[in-house]
Amino acid sequence: MKKIFTIMALAAALVSAAPAKAQIKLGLKGGLNVTSMSFDKEVFNGSNQTGFFVGPTVKVTLPLVGLGLDAAALYDQRDIESKDEDGAETISQKNINIPINLRYGIGLGSMASIYFAAGPQFGFNVGQKNFFDGDFEMKKSNLSVNLGAGVSLVNHVEIGFTYNIACGKTGEFNIGESVGNQVFHRTKSARMNAWQISAAYYF
Predict the structure, then answer these.
(1) What is the pLDDT of residues 130-169, one digit of tens each?
(2) Cα dihedral sign for 128, 134, 137, 140?
(3) Which region, left, alpha or beta, applies to residue 5 given φ > 0 means left and ψ of -120 to 50 means alpha?
(4) Which of 79, 149, 143 is nearest to 113 (CA)?
(5) What is the DSSP string of the chain?
(6) CA dist list (Å): 194 to 42, 123, 144
(7) Phi then psi dihedrals of residue 87, to 5 deg
(8) I need a labelling partner for 46 at 20 to 30 A (CA). Which of 6, 67, 174, 185 fits?
(9) What is the full DSSP assignment across 143-186?
(10) d(C-alpha 140, C-alpha 36), whole Å
């Protein structure tokens, strides 16, 4: 929890450090993600699954033309249906994700604009961490990168599309192999990426 509060404090500091002429808007953001887990097929096969995210967000429009920032604190759930020789099991990652993005917007008139956004996302596991009787362990925290674009309408509504790319491993699978009377263990790592579609309303 200390890490979560530290990142949220950093995001708040970035917002408070914005120039006096900057425009700050608070809002609510939610959406769907389609998750793909990259994993060695000798362990199991995972299929793409949908999930969701929701939480408060803040957008800062800087006095420099087109530039801005956004940050959020999102409850994010991603499910993967995995299959191995023993059957199927759902791996569910439940995170508090804190994305902090740099934005560049292009106006299309007084009623609409398009934007491009990119930045880091800090994730903290708040759900189950062990699956397959403890053989698969989800990391307690993870770092990823967001690349996205979207459209802003009437200064209040935003529709966005984002590709979230995991940096490093999301979890590890412990594989035990018996050779004679000895058991040898090795690990295989997994990465969880996601396509996301979101909607936000700023007050």
Answers:
(1) 877 767 788 899 999 999 999 999 889 999 999 999 998 8
(2) positive
(3) alpha
(4) 149
(5) -HHHHHHHHHHHHHHHTS-TT-EEEEEEEEEEEEEEEE--TTT-EEE-EEEEEEEEEEEEE-SSTTEEEEEE-EEEEEEEEEEETTEEEEEEEEEEEEEEEEEEEEE-SSSEEEEEEEEEEEEEE-S--EETTTTEEE-SEEEEEEEEEEEEETTTEEEEEEEEEEES-SEEEEEEEEETTEEEEEEEEEEEEEEEEEEEEE-
(6) 22, 13, 10
(7) 130, -155
(8) 185
(9) EEEEEEEEEEETTTEEEEEEEEEEES-SEEEEEEEEETTEEEEE
(10) 19
CA distance 109 to 42: 54
- Scan for tokens 């040898």, then name that residue: 184
Task: Give the span between the Cα atoms of 69 and 66, in whole angstroms.
Answer: 10
Find where tokens 């408060």 sit: 56
How many angstroms separate the CA atoms of 143 and 138, rounded? Answer: 13
Which pLDDT tens digit goes with each residue over 49-104? Answer: 789 999 999 999 887 778 999 999 999 998 877 665 666 677 788 999 999 999 99
Whether domain 2-202 has CATH 1.10.10.10: the reply is no
Q: Which residues does 13 contact at the CB level (< 8 Å), separation at least 6?
A: none
CA 189 to chain CA mean position, Å: 18
Q: 82, 90 in Cβ contact below 8 A?
A: yes
Length in residues, the chain: 203
